[in-house]
Amino acid sequence: MLGMGETTAKRGRPRAFDRDAAIAKATRLFWERGYETTSVSELTEAMGIRPGSLYAAFGDKRSLFKEVVHTYGRSAAGGLMNAALQEEPTARQAFARILREAAAIYPDPSHPAGCLIISAATNVTAQDDEIAAFLRDLRNANLTVLHDRLCAAQQQGELPSDANPRALAGYFAAAIQGMSQRARDGADAAELAEIAELAMAAWPKHGPGAPS
Length: 212
Hints:
Blueprint: H1 4-12, H2 19-33, H3 40-47, H4 51-58, H5 61-73, H6 80-87, H7 91-105, H8 116-119, H9 129-155, H10 165-184, H11 189-200
């Protein structure tokens, strides 16, 4: 028979849970509804834990969301840009892969449509401006990565000397963000693939006699 102290300790012990599974469920909820409209009670219900366990494990809703975003960034959906830039031998091949994979992934019915980082904080109140800034900084960091890859391509002669890497990076970032929103609005993979090919048609070409 347990003593009183042992009973109290047992009852007070937080219920064990699978952190990865809980993060996956929170990810889906934030992805579907966005940060602002997802409540702590909805999160704990989906994750199968009590509010106290959420706060003990993650700190608060904002900290949980940031962990969700970082985990998403390591997934196939969230990490498609970095994978393409690291694995493809040329900038053109990398950018084409990013757009084509986005066209396939964003409308995939196995998860919410679009990109979590692009859409999760489109409408936030002033009290959650920290989250909006957090996601904005991530998107701007991605823009910088695209710009740097284009600058390197220009230095290596892949892009013509009169190309504008900054404008190109902004153009492709806008295309990717637009594809995410189109997917959330119901566009299918075929429509997004057409958009991806149209976007790649803007890739700068060398003039006559210049190396391709």
